[in-house]
Amino acid sequence: MPTPEFTYTPNYTYPVTDEWDTGVTQSRNGAERRASRRNSVMKSWELDFRTLTESDATGMQIFFNARKGRFEAFNWTCLLDSTQYLVRFDTDKLTFEKTGNKRFRVRVPLRQVTA
Q: Are 54 and 100 in contact (CB under 8 A)?
């Protein structure tokens, strides 16, 4: 079964976070030992959709529910670097706010995952 793709484009610039996973252990004498738990940076994004149509909001809600929140991974292409990432929703809740005549706003947190 092919990996689903999230094709919605946010209206506004969105923050990108680079994250490493470093383990730190401290001995009884206070010396620290550090170990990298990952060989590459992992990214996360907070996409901001402020003027979704009713149709797009419904489609996004269907996509989110089909992934069971943050359970299932999917592909997403970042507009800032034109790279396709394997990601998950970084939440099990997605709240749509009606902002006007058939317009909706939602913030969508994504987190890169390893294959």
A: no
